[in-house]
Amino acid sequence: DSGVTQTPKHLITATGQRVTLRCSPRSGDLSVYWYQQSLDQGLQFLIQYYNGEERAKGNILERFSAQQFPDLHSELNLSSLELGDSALYFCASSVEGGNTEAFFGQGTRLTVV
Amino acid sequence: AQSVAQPEDQVNVAEGNPLTVKCTYSVSGNPYLFWYVQYPNRGLQFLLKYITGDNLVKGSYGFEAEFNKSQTSFHLKKPSALVSDSALYFCAVRDGSLADGLTFGKGTHLIIQP
Question: Is the confidence at residue A13, as pLDDT, over 70?
């Protein structure tokens, strides 16, 4: 168990809908990262937050947004969902960025139908 | 831009034999290199990292990796493979001079045959 908790584990929704994925980082970790894993794109970095502030942006679509709350949990919001958004979404946390390793949650499997 | 290449989709090794999973990287600044392992329907587990210092890095479960700056490689190795090592292995890089997430390779399926 990595100590990173993601909910829900599975999510099935229709095209055009909006969903929210939640992540609780390991105790003491200030950085939260979101990644998308799909068969065709592999593992892609979406966005990083550090202590409530956005720190880095990767290949995140404009339809997607995230935030980190004062208690350090994070939410990833996906809107106007398309079939191609079906993927495994991982949250990871680390003490800080840079040279510290990130610990991954078990992921949320999103299926858009 | 940073990138990682894992040239083998799959590596097959007999149990008890040494294993190597290859990784090469490209990054503008100083490379921070990581290996992760993923078991079916699970998240990624951290194995080891290279930030600076000794080129040979030891990690979890008997794995090690060698950083080679001239060849821009960071191959994962283990002297004696176990069937339980069968999994999907990812190499990842971050540019040490930037605030950024990890860039992952496409992954290598490691299959250890009894």
Answer: yes
Question: With an 8 Å Cβ cutoff, is A42 touching chain B?
Answer: yes
Q: Evaluate whether A79 touches A37 at the Cβ level (below 8 Å).
A: no
Q: Which of A24, A18, A28, A33 is nearest to A80 (CA)?
A: A18
**Contacts for B45 with CB less than 8 Å, ≥ 6 apart:** A2, A104, B36, B37, B38, B39, B60
In this prediction, residue A90 has a pLDDT band, given cuts at 50, 70 and 90, of very high
User: What token pair was written down for B38?
Assistant: 């993923």
Rg (alpha carbons) of chain B, rounded to whole number: 14
Q: Look at residue A59 and tell me whether its pLDDT is greater than 90.
A: no
* Residue contact A2–B43, C-beta within 8 A: yes
Q: Is residue B113 over pLDDT 70?
A: yes
Candidates B45, B82, B40, B38; CA nearest to B62 is B82
Percent of chain A, pLDDT > 90? 88
Contact status of A112 with chain B (Cβ, < 8 Å): no
Please report residues of B whose CB lies closer than 8 A to that of A24: none
Report the 10 Å Cβ neighbour count for B76.
26
User: What is the helix (H) or strand (E) element at residue B33, kind and residue range?
Assistant: strand B31-38
